[in-house]
Amino acid sequence: MQNLTVYCSQPASPQMATFLLAVQNAHGVVIRPVSELPAPDPLRRQQLRVERTGLLEAIAVAAHDLDRLVYGEVQPDAGRENGLRFELEALKRRLSGVNTVLGTEKGGTDNA
Q: N or C end of the chain: which has fewer CB within 10 A?
């Protein structure tokens, strides 16, 4: 069984120490300070930026197609409309995840 590494900013706090000790004993967890967290892979971050661009384009296309159905510019099709709504929601969720990862960069949009 491979150990799980957990990086913690306050492992010395009494509540966190108790929790981490319990998890460590039950699951073989290795606790490390946040200062030992490995640096992000710059190539992976670049891949995510490219993916974000593609997601934004796909969201715009899906939203446009959905608007055309909703406003009667094309023949009504409930199956296609439901599919577009599902696709649009899935794209937005993936974009949210990508933005979260990219926002964790030091100085990033969510972590200035």
A: N
